[in-house]
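Form 7-S
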Amino acid sequence: MSADFEVSPKLKQNQAIYLIQRAIGIGFLHQRLKKEIFQIRQSKRKKKALNKKIRSMRKIQDTTLTTKEKKKRDRGLRKQNGKGILRINDSIANLSLSDSDVSNSRRVLLREAKKT
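Output:
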């Protein structure tokens, strides 16, 4: 039976060459795939870095300042905001309807005077 299945040395050599070429080709493909995967990962990292939201100064300060410094900062902000809001409310509260009518009529008169 072994005589029926004997393989010639030339065929064995061709099979060996084929297997070696195939192994080299697979190795080459494997290296190429690894390189492409690496490049894809790098591009994703770059995109992530570019798409990061710019944090506000307050968030950056929250990570670096001590609690005492944060309290001092917040106290100063509250004072600033409080003063600004009070000024706006006072100006609106003191403005009456007649005052706005007077200022509007004055503007109209000034425009007409400039035209003539």
